[in-house]
Structure formats: C-alpha cells, structure tokens
C-alpha cells in the first residue's frame, strides 16, 4: 500500500436538490496532520461522514486506508478512529470501563486491551481517576482521554471533529501535543477546528465554501497565495462570499 | 454610573460543595462592552444566571441597573436581555412566532423596537415561517439575539454566543455587538475564544471560579512583564520538544505557525535562542520578538 491514506476523487453528496458536498478531490498522506476547514454549513460534516463510511456518496470515488468507501465500509471503520466534542465517551461509565468498551468494539484481545489500557493510563497520568465516572472529569481530561481512546487500536487515520472547543489555552496545547505525537508515530490526523491558530499547526489545510474545496495547501503557501497575515485572513477572504446561510 | 456591580459573589453546588464561583467582584460601566473570558467550567454561566436572577448566590451581592439581584428580581427581569449558551427558544414555534411570543411576554410588540433588531432580523426573515428547531446553528443564534433584544433591554447578557461558530460568522456577530453598544446598551458577553477579548472594552479573565484579572485588554497585555519570542522551524513537533529542555525559558508553547518562548531575563537575545537550537540540531530557526496577546497572558496566569 502506498503512503496515501485518503484519496477522494470528485466526491459528491446530494440531499434532494441540495448539493451538500460538491465534487471534492484531495489526498492525505501517512502521518500527516490535515486540517479540514470551512464555514458552518459548508459541507464538512457530510464529507467526513462519507469518509468514515457512515454515509453513501451520490457520486465520485474515495478510498480510505486502501478501502473503497462504497463497498468496504466495515473494513474502513476498523481502520479509523473518531472523536468529536459532542460525542466520544460514555459519561456514565468509568474511565476504565470506557477504555475497555471501545477497545472491545475495535476488536482488541483481552491481553492487548489490558496492556494498552495500562499504557494509556500511565501516559495520561490518570492512575487515581480510573474508577471515576467520565462525567466527573474536567472537560480537558475528557478530551485527552477521548483522543487516546480513539487511537487505542492503532488506526491508520483518526478523524477529529472540533476536538478542542471550549478548552482553556494550556489544555488545548496539551491536546495538540497528543496529536503531534500520534502523527509522529505515523497516524494520519484529519481534523476540523474553528480555532484558526490551530489551523496553523496542520501540515496542510483545505478550506471548504458552499460544498467545494476552494483552497488546499500548506498554511505558509496559502498565506502567500492570498497575501494574508494569518490563516484567519485567508479563511475570511474565502468564506465571507459564501452563499449558504448558516 | 454602573450597569452591573458584583461584590464577593459565591456559588457552591451540591453535597461535594463544589465552588463554581469563588468571591467574584467586578463592575460594568453603562454602555460598556464587558467580556468574561475563560474556558468551560470557569464559572461564567453561573455568574450569568445569578445576574439574570435565575440562580441565588450563596454569599455576596450584586446589582443590575442599580437593582438588587435577590430583592428586586422582577424589576431586573423587565430590563435585561439574556441569551443563554444553550439554545432556549421554542423549537416548535416558527421564527416569527418566537419573536412575537417574547415581545408579548414583555408587554411590547415587534413593531415598537423593530429598529433595534432590523439589521439582524432581515438575515433570518426569509425563513420566518420555519420552525426554530429546523434552523441551522448560525440562524438560531441570530434569532436568539433578536428575542433577547425585542423588549429593548438596557443590559444584554450573552453567554458564549460564538461557541462553535465559524470565524466569519463570529466576526459578523461582533460587528452586531458594536452596533448595539453604539445605541447605549451595556453588554456582558462570555467567550472561550481569547482573540475575541480584544474586541471588548474591558475583560475579566476567569478560571476555576476565580477572577485572574479585570482590565482593558491593552492594560492586561502591557502588564505581561516577561520577554516573549516567536520561534519557527521546519518541524514544529521537534521544535516544541527541544524547547522544553531550554532551561532559560519560563515556558514555551505552540502559537499558530510559531512557538512562543517566554523569558524573564532581558539579557537573553534572539541569537541566544538560535544558538541553543543550533546546538540541538535545529538549524536556521527563525527567532523574532513576539507581540504579547491575551492568550499569552492567560497562559501565564494559568501557570502561576
């Protein structure tokens, strides 16, 4: 298998007459941190659901970790991790129960799960919290734990949907250290965010407007191309002309 | 003249005696745009709910428009507008019905104060017959703001109006706030986005129920005290890992395309940092003095 882990070719999703995602094409490489940006309603969530094998495209092609998104959705689901701010862990299960539950779902064996749980708890320094309900953890801890659980089964790609909303600036950076570390191990990170400084942490970013990818490059090149001081400026130049009201 | 005064207010929850708001004091001048800046769980919502008379403080006192939040709660409710962080309009009423409902509850009509909401309302008017539950996030936010304004409040409380909203809509929202402020409305707004702090007249930085500082954004930045450098190299992960071992630095952390390094020794120059990095095999790093932002100040407060 090549080092290209996501290939999307004119990927399209229509809901009736509405074209939510309009012929988007891009590639994402192994170990890359890829920022998937766009205004609310630009079609990011729809695109992400297709890439995760949760929604069948109306047209176009894509492979995820070498698997076809029409025919091999079950294989895809085993090769990816997913975390969003809205849903990731069960609040009324303990830390350890959550780790075991998700590990089990992803098909880890008993021994493997035991070792990996210990490693994870060690790494996050959560020895005293393992029997606590997730609901009792501060938000920052929850998010760090959710990310670690999402990569517990060593997925090829982890999808992060606005993972850091509402977190304090120090915790937000600790979270990004986990992302860098995972990418350094070869995990591909596909992330959406509304924090434009976080967009700068990505190797490459795409910006969606009204269902289409209007820009895709490294943050440095995008700033040059748009003669902008920051990604915030680039985003503003592209997205302020959006037709879709959200 | 103060629109809001808060004196040593405290709120404790549950059997565990969780202190959500810990002896908080601040005041908001008439016509001021005042920001409560802090992460989730800092106590922002509890403060809003006490000031809008929906929650009783355990100790301390506060006034809104000169009225006491405990004794004069009825008077306060008539004169303030409140937009909670969680969407709280009637999902099964249409846009227009919601607006009409809230106007009527306050004994007024849509026409009387239409001027105040016109700019915002025209953007959602094409959907006025749509049920509120079927609106997108951005439209819900605009409708909620209209409903909070329809009785022409003198103080407006907005709890995280821009959370989860994209940068373009966030900018538009702050433009709306500026226009409302220009009409003399005092605004208390909370946000977890540090870059929005600069758009407020004064801000309170808040963490774990305690106020870290109440000042103008300019003064908070001016009071930073340490020297700040921005450092860039090809591999950010390696750069950050390497900077952790720089013992001259107070702290180092990612900041957009750069890493920020803070020092309290003004004898250390950009060249020294470059030299340190070169010694650790990071060649040709760019090191420049960095302008202090509110986020840098917040990080410093959190680390102390």
Query: What's the mean pLDDT score of chain B?
Result: 94
The topology string of helices and strands of chain B comes to EEEHEEHEHHHEHEEEHEHEEHEH
Number of domains of chain B: 2
Termini separation of chain A (Å)?
Answer: 40 Å
**CATH class type of the domain at 4-88 and 156-239 in chain A:** Alpha Beta
How would you describe this structure to a colleague?
- The complex is a heterodimer of chains A (246) and B (304).
- Chain A is an alpha/beta fold and 246 residues long.
- Chain A has a domain at 4-88 and 156-239: 3-Layer(aba) Sandwich (Rossmann fold).
- Helix content of chain A is 36%, strand content 26%.
- Chain A contains nine helices and ten strands.
- In chain A, the strands form two sheets. In chain A, strands 6-7-8-3-9-10 form a six-stranded mixed sheet, with helices on both faces.
- The mean pLDDT of chain A is 92.
- Chain B is an alpha/beta fold and 304 residues long.
- The model of chain B has no long low-confidence stretch (mean pLDDT 94).
- In chain B, the strands form three sheets. A six-stranded mixed sheet of chain B has the order 6-7-8-3-9-10, sandwiched between helices.
- Chain B has ten helices and 14 strands.
- In chain B, a hairpin with a 2-residue loop joins strand 12 and strand 13.
- Chain B is elongated.
- In chain B, helix 3 (95-105) packs parallel to helix 5 (137-149) and helix 4 runs antiparallel to helix 5.
- The interface between A and B is large, with 41 and 38 residues.
